[in-house]
Design a protein that fits this description.
The chain is an alpha+beta fold. It contains nine helices and 26 strands.
């Protein structure tokens, strides 16, 4: 990092002769000026950049707890999950670390300026580290209200280098604001590093705009945040990114990977039939896209979705609007191996500062999934002439005593309608999207797996 100094402005240059005369007069008057100068002139001295990270040493003999680690998953700028050796303190061999003394802008949930930049710095630093060590603030492994360990993160850039404190380095580089920075083991150093970054106007302390942040009128957000706080965003214009798991009849199933929970979250997106043709060309299965639209509850499908997509045909790469990010991405098709846990189990998720319990099938809604070894025990076909789904099939399947419905669209093979008798009594594997439907006469949505192609059902 370059040294940073405060700079002073320069006056407009006068005529050369006048400069020379002025300089001679100044030399003659200099002793008098120095003698008359008060002790405090009010001029701020130039500040030399200090590397507080290099000046901070790890004391291996101190009373704090220490453990060597390697990265399990990168979450954001101030949160990382690590692998450690299994022990009485860490029986599962995993530590979810929340960095002490710092608070980086959000790059998960509701996104903030400089959040992605801070997250990228932390990830790159640890990815290139030759060794990593975690340190507690005192003699105990302390946790926050969400069960994350509050830690100092040390790393070696090379095997023969000294340990560097990543918490202080993040503060020093201007990627974070203070979070109880003075009330800990390295408090005075943290405050000094923070003051220097503020004076140097680095990143979050600058007046500059974050080049990775779109600055539109939409709320930058993750799909997980929408799924776990849906009422907070009803009617709000949002922007999300993800991979299209399926595109069918004006509706997208968009999914996004969450590093913290290590799973995919999905969202239904309705773009209808009035979307520009140029946009429809890239709203294809397998493409990574940025969606900008309004988050709302759709009574007609009994589900939350993003609708009213905005797209600029004149500026298709503008991140303020729906746009293509990358083509031909891999659709994850997360395996569902325990059907009972999927249909009836619950998972605790950190939402803000609280831990909230959700149904597993709700959390997986609108994501791609793979199920194998299902036995088809019953079938029925939509036969209403007025239905757009006339000919669509529902396969009632069972595995280990648990039932689940597989719902197809109207399927054709070689121009011929595929009928239910093809699957009756068979054992099948299925690739599809987790969806919901509301049975006739009910107001409660039920979970099903939607299938969109014949080859998505493999018969044993």
């Amino acid at each position: 990092m370059k040294n940073v100094f405060f700079r002073k402005g320069r006056a407009t240059a006068p005529h050369a002769g006048r400069i020379l005369a002025f300089a001679l007069a100044l030399v003659m008057l200099l002793p008098t000026l120095l003698a008359c100068k008060p002790a405090d002139s009010g001029n701020e001295p130039e500040r030399e950049h200090v590397d507080y990270v290099a000046n901070t040493k790890l004391e291996m003999t101190s009373s704090s707890r220490k453990v060597e680690a390697r990265v399990k998953s990168y979450i954001d700028g101030d949160t990382t999950h690590f692998y450690v050796d299994e022990s009485a303190d860490f029986p599962e061999g995993i530590i979810k670390a929340r960095y002490l003394a710092i608070d980086t802008p959000e790059s998960t949930g509701r996104l903030e300026e400089w959040g992605k930049t801070a997250s990228a710095f932390t990830k790159q630093t640890l990815k290139n580290a030759a060794a990593i060590l975690l340190e507690s603030d005192d003699e105990n492994w302390n946790k926050d209200n969400n069960g994350r360990h509050l830690l100092w993160i040390w790393y070696k850039p090379t095997a023969d280098a000294e340990w560097r404190n990543l918490n202080i380095e993040i503060l020093q580089n201007g990627y974070a604001i203070a979070s109880n920075s003075g009330q800990n083991r390295y408090g005075s150093t943290c405050l000094a590093a923070l003051a220097q970054a503020t004076a140097e106007k680095l990143y979050v302390h600058s007046d500059e705009k974050d080049p990775t942040f779109p600055y539109g009128d939409a709320t930058e957000i993750t799909i997980k945040e929408l799924r776990t706080n849906k009422e907070d965003y009803e009617g709000v214009k949002v922007a999300v990114e993800g991979v299209i798991a399926q595109n069918t009849n004006g509706t997208l199933y968009l999914e996004q990977y969450d590093e913290e929970d290590e799973c995919w979250y999905g969202m239904q997106v309705f773009y209808g039939y009035n979307m520009a043709t140029s946009a429809k060309r890239f709203l294809k299965t397998g493409n990574a896209v940025r969606i900008v639209g309004t988050f709302q509850y759709a009574e007609v499908v009994n589900a939350w979705q993003i609708a009213g997509l905005e797209y600029d045909q004149m500026d298709p790469k503008n991140p303020k609007y729906t746009q293509l990010i990358a083509e031909n991405q891999t659709i994850p098709y997360t395996p569902i191996t325990d059907l009972a846990d999927f249909t009836n189990g619950k998972t605790e998720i950190t939402v803000g500062e609280e831990i909230v319990s959700f149904d597993n099938n709700y959390l997986a809604l609108h994501t791609s999934a793979f199920l194998e070894g299902l036995t088809v025990v019953d079938t029925w076909t939509t036969t209403k002439e007025s239905s757009d789904d006339k000919g669509a099939i529902t396969l009632v399947c069972e595995k280990d005593g648990v039932r689940i419905n597989i719902r197809t669209i109207v399927l054709y093979e070689d121009g011929q309608l595929v009928t239910a008798d093809r699957f009756e009594g068979k054992v099948i594997d299925v690739r599809g999207v987790i969806d919901s439907y509301t049975p006739e006469g009910s107001t409660e949505a039920q979970i099903q797996i939607r299938v969109f192609t014949v080859d998505a059902i493999i018969i044993h």
